[in-house]
Prior knowledge:
The chain is mostly helical. The protein has one domain. The protein is built from 4 helices and no strands. The chain has helices at about 5-10, 30-40, 45-60, 65-75.
Amino acid sequence: xxxxxxxxxxxxxxxxxxxxxxxxxxxxxxxxxxxxxxxxxxxxxxxxxxxxxxxxxxxxxxxxxxxxxxxxxxxxxx
Length: 78
């Protein structure tokens, strides 16, 4: 598995570490919560980058990509 694919898989595997949606998978966060971060500023580091990417995917109507990523994740990254 390539580094880019592993990074994308984190969007459907990593859980939100804090806040109202603590323990919810990043790709499952509501758009309204992601829009709030977009206005206030995403957290620093990898978490912020991932939240920003989830926001971009969702606000551009590309959520079907998460379905494909979840399928890959269930199959061990293949």
